[in-house]
Specification:
By secondary structure, the chain is α+β, with helices and mostly antiparallel strands. It folds into 3 domains: 2-95, 3-Layer(aba) Sandwich (Rossmann fold); 117-179, 2-Layer Sandwich (Dna Ligase, domain 1), CATH 3.30.1490.20; 182-286, ATP-grasp fold, B domain (D-amino Acid Aminotransferase, Chain A, domain 1, 2-Layer Sandwich), CATH 3.30.470. Helices cover 32% and strands 27% of the residues. The protein has helices at residues 13-24, 70-82, 91-98, 100-109, 126-132, 157-169, 227-240, 268-274, 278-289, and strands spanning 2-6, 28-32, 37-40, 47-50, 53-55, 60-63, 86-87, 117-118, 138-142, 151-154, 174-178, 186-193, 197-204, 219-222, 244-252, 255-262. The chain has a 5-stranded antiparallel β-sheet with strand order 14-13-12-15-16, with helices on both faces. It has a 4-stranded parallel β-sheet with strand order 2-1-6-7, with helices on both faces. Helix 1 (13-24) crosses helix 9. The radius of gyration is 20 Å and the shape is globular.
Length: 301
């Protein structure tokens, strides 16, 4: 098979591992920087060109699209879809999961457990909004934030009001969530491939840090998840329409709560902590599904 990887950096751990796994299984692989692609959009023969060369005859595409280039990256992926190339994750599913507010609304509609979440646009509504989510302490998140950036823990009502007012003054879109104290600064990353949790790790925040992101100094370790956590992770990925996803769960007194569904989960932490060949499992999923070109959201993009 001929497989493309949409990635801006071929030297990243996740991209390198995917290249190795494709090549070791006898596939031809090419890394493509989405921002260097340009498109001919027409009804007869849609095309993508990359550095002066037409990209054609791909069987599958693995999107590793960074949050900062979501708009252009998903446009390129959508063009591949129009050309009949099988996407591991579809453009509409990636766009859906990248919108934190939209993803929370979709999960809540299906009854998935999550932290109580509030959203408002006017400073006058802050006090009532904080009461809606259970009062301080609360977690305040930028909707455009990623890897723990733009996430603030406000431990008092006054601090929460000040932070929300500051963000609103900057015209930033934010959401306010209840703080799950019993999680102890840890979360569970469930790696889902094709409606199965194939690996899971516990991410623990550094001392004094409530964010568990590995980019923020957190540590990762192997963890055994419960059947309920497994079902929740699979359901969350399915609702987003993602074949490959990193579902982040908090352990709470009322069961597992979905914090985020990541459409381009990193491979280093999960492979290192679990010892599993996750990259190889992604390529195996492609081998099973690309020939049929079955997709979840065909015609909805």
């Amino acid at each position: 098979m001929k497989i493309g990887i949409l990635s801006r950096n071929a030297n990243l751990y996740s991209t390198r591992r995917l290249i190795e796994s494709c090549e070791s299984r006898g596939h031809e692989v090419k890394v493509i920087d989405a921002l260097r692609c340009y498109m001919n959009i027409n009804s007869e023969k849609p095309q993508i060109h990359f550095k002066g060369e037409e990209l054609s005859d791909f069987d599958a595409i693995i999107p590793r699209i960074g949050a900062s280039v979501t708009f252009y990256g998903t446009a390129v992926l959508r063009q591949f879809e129009m050309m009949g190339v099988y996407p591991v994750n579809e453009s509409v599913a990636i766009t859906r999961s990248r919108d934190k507010l939209r993803s929370m609304q979709l999960l809540s509609r299906k009854g998935i457990g999550m932290p109580i979440t509030g959203f408002a646009s006017k400073p006058d509504d802050i006090k009532d909004l904080l009461q809606m989510v259970g009062g301080a302490p609360v977690v305040i998140k930028l909707l455009e934030g990623t890897q723990g950036i733009g996430v603030v823990l406000a431990e008092t009502k006054k601090a929460a009001e000040s932070v929300v007012e500051a963000f609103m003054g900057l015209k930033a879109n934010i959401m306010v969530q209840e703080f799950i104290k019993e999680a102890g600064g840890a979360d569970i990353r469930c790696f889902v491939i094709g409606e199965k949790v194939i690996a899971a790790m516990k991410r623990q925040g550094a001392k004094g840090e409530f964010r568990s992101n590995l980019h923020r100094g957190g540590s990762a370790s192997l963890v055994k998840i419960t059947p309920q956590e497994r079902r929740t992770a699979v359901a969350a990925a399915k609702i987003m329409g993602l074949n490959v996803a990193g579902v982040d769960l908090l352990r709470s007194e009322r069961g597992p709560l979905v914090m985020e569904v990541n459409s381009s989960p990193g491979l280093e932490g999960i492979e290192t902590s679990t010892g599993k060949d996750v990259a190889g499992m992604i390529v195996e999923f492609i081998e099973k599904n690309a020939p049929s070109k079955r997709t979840r959201t065909r015609g909805q993009g």
